[in-house]
Design a protein that fits this description.
This is Alkylation response protein AidB-like acyl-CoA dehydrogenase. The chain is an alpha+beta fold. It has three domains: about 130 residues, Acyl-CoA dehydrogenase/oxidase, N-terminal domain (Butyryl-Coa Dehydrogenase, subunit A, domain 1); about 80 residues, Butyryl-CoA Dehydrogenase, subunit A, domain 2 (Beta Barrel); about 150 residues, Butyryl-CoA Dehydrogenase, subunit A, domain 3 (Up-down Bundle). The protein has twelve helices and nine strands. The strands form two sheets. Strands 1, 2, 3, 4, 5, 6 and 7 form a seven-stranded mixed beta sheet that branches. It has a two-stranded antiparallel ribbon with strand order 8-9. Helix 6 runs antiparallel to helix 8. The chain is globular, with a radius of gyration of 21 Å. The protein starts with a helix and ends in a 12-residue tail after the last helix.
């Protein structure tokens, strides 16, 4: 289908009610928040990362008490049968706490990649362990020609793979005799090199494979559609984490400016500070709305058995808005906390580091807008490439 023919499918058409509060979602949020607050103290989590004790207790609690890994998996395949709308509720809370566990890489991208398998029997064993949280499945994107598939083995080098350290399996594109496919690789014999980068709460690693055991998840006929679906999921999930981070940064900063005194009054009473925080509040609401709408579009398309349609556009919007919002909120938090905000003792810089690291790993707001322009066939835009 050509770009002009697809345009009618891309315009927003979901019921505005998808943005309204849902009592069940708030109950889910309360449970997720209680787990994260009880077991996800930021300093403890950072200590766990430094000592290599990841997954942390937060991951174990989320999988055992909340069935995090099963939320968006169909009941027929052992899941809870909900959708992305429910999953983003939890992602907002784990994002707000900068949880370093493989929530994004395994509970979202890895598991959803397994569900795309042409033959469910191929992933049956791995899927069961991933649902239990004992197998960690990560996803590598943007490496279209990095792996070569020969028979039942894969070889090649992948750079900056999210949560490669500690993962048991990897989903990635590979080139085989019949063309490009999506493969599931066993990382038991992989050479994984941890990378140092700006954000220690996101663990990245380079992966070298030499004859690693691999199986084909999606064949040449369906690989482009599978990669588009995973791109949409990645954009919405990361934007959901950003929405949670913006909300936490706003709360943190408001609490500071209402207690910090200057010239005998709280600094939050000054008009200049009020205006800056009002901008962060607007950014928070834009981010939340974009994420929840995009998640609803994904669920609608999946339920109707359609291709991605407007979900691609909605996801690109959410990604652009979320990236822009979290960077702005992080910079405001650092500055409005004054001298303490610039020190290692205050958590504000951790949020800035996560925001900067995510921009490098998942794309800038400009990148997401370029994708949006390509989806809408805006004159002069670069043709869309599936990553």
């Amino acid at each position: 289908m050509s770009a002009p023919d697809r345009l009618p499918l891309l315009w927003p058409d979901s019921d505005p009610a998808v943005l309204a509060p849902v009592p069940e979602h708030e109950d889910l949020r309360a449970v997720a928040r209680s787990i994260v607050e009880k077991h996800g103290d930021l300093e403890q989590l950072l200590g766990a990362v430094e000592s290599g004790q990841v997954p942390t207790e937060v991951w174990r609690r989320l999988t055992a008490e909340l069935d995090l890994t099963a939320i968006a998996v169909p009941e027929a395949q052992g899941g809870a049968g909900f959708g992305l709308r429910e999953l983003v509720v939890v992602l907002e809370e784990t994002g707000a706490a900068l949880v370093p566990d493989p929530v994004l890489s395994s509970a979202v991208l890895g598991l959803q990649a397994l569900l795309l398998a042409d033959d469910p029997a191929v992933v049956e064993g791995v899927l069961a362990h991933a649902l239990a949280g004992s197998a960690l499945v990560t996803h590598a994107w943007g490496h279209a020609d990095a792996l070569r598939l020969e028979g039942a083995t894969a070889s090649g080098r992948l750079h900056r793979v999210l949560d490669a350290v500690g993962a048991t399996h990897l989903v990635a594109p590979a080139v085989g005799p019949e063309g490009q496919v999506l493969v599931l690789v066993d990382l038991a014999a992989a050479d994984v090199t941890p990378l140092e980068h700006v954000d220690v709460t996101r663990r990245l690693g380079d992966v070298v494979l030499e004859g690693a055991s691999a199986r084909v998840l999606v064949g040449p006929d369906g690989v482009d559609d599978a990669k588009r679906r995973l791109t949409v999921l990645r954009q919405v999930a990361v934007a959901a984490e950003h929405a949670g981070m913006v909300a936490r940064l706003l709360d943190m900063t408001v609490a500071h400016v209402t207690t910090r005194q200057q010239f005998g009054r709280p600094i939050g009473s000054f008009q200049a500070v009020k205006h800056r925080l009002a901008d962060v509040l607007v950014a928070r609401e834009r981010c939340r709305s974009a994420v929840r709408y995009a998640a609803a579009r994904v669920d609608d398309d999946v339920a109707a058995g359609h291709d991605l349609g407007g979900a691609e556009v909605a996801a690109a919007v959410a990604a652009a808005v979320g990236t822009e919002a979290v960077l702005a909120a992080a910079h405001e938090a650092v500055q409005l906390h004054g001298g303490i905000g610039f020190t290692w003792e205050h958590p504000a810089h951790r949020y800035l580091r996560r925001a900067l690291g995510d921009e490098a790993q998942f794309g800038s707001a400009r990148d997401h807008r370029a994708r949006l322009a390509a989806l809408l066939a805006v004159p002069g835009s670069t043709p869309l490439e599936v990553s």
